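Re: export button greyed out
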Amino acid sequence: AQTVTQSQPEMSVQEAETVTLSCTYDTSESDYYLFWYKQPPSRQMILVIRQEAYKQQNATENRFSVNFQKAAKSFSLKISDSQLGDAAMYFCAYHPGDMRFGAGTRLTVKP
Amino acid sequence: DTGVSQDPRHKITKRGQNVTFRCDPISEHNRLYWYRQTLGQGPEFLTYFQNEAQLEKSRLLSDRFSAERPKGSFSTLEIQRTEQGDSAMYLCASSRFPAPQETQYFGPGTRLLVL
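Workaround output, generated via the alternate export path:
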């Protein structure tokens, strides 16, 4: 069974600084997708970034980038130039088939 | 708005009652997923459809839960004889499959409170 582990229940970052959220996963599959989703308080889940396992190049989306280490089964999210609007729960997720989510990391952004 | 929609957004019911939730996916998406999310946790997979076929069900989906997608468009999730432990946010997501980069897009969820 695939499992996703987010070891940081809470993280805090100063506005304009950089923060990295950790995620590890367990799978026997060789082809899969990994995602980071953001869930602001009382709002819906929004896709932040996606990584295909067969791609060696790390995905980037504006201020968001990942460090994908396939051998280590690690998939961390880096948020650069943090903004107040980045405050949310962040979930790491594994796919294919049903999506498996980690327990989430609550990110606080301090002004 | 062409995103995933869910109705109702909130539902309060008494233990033992039946409830039904509806999800309307993004129009061109053929896959539809249901998840349950309890407070402080990540979503847990319940079931998913490809068109009208229910392809997978989690063991979390007890006999009291049933989902349908009769015409391959909207889906309903029914919970019979609700229990307090059913209180959670029920999330729906949709995706296009196959796709070069299959991605699930989520609706706003239905928050269920069982008294």
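The radius of gyration of chain B is 13 Å. The button fix ships in the next patch.
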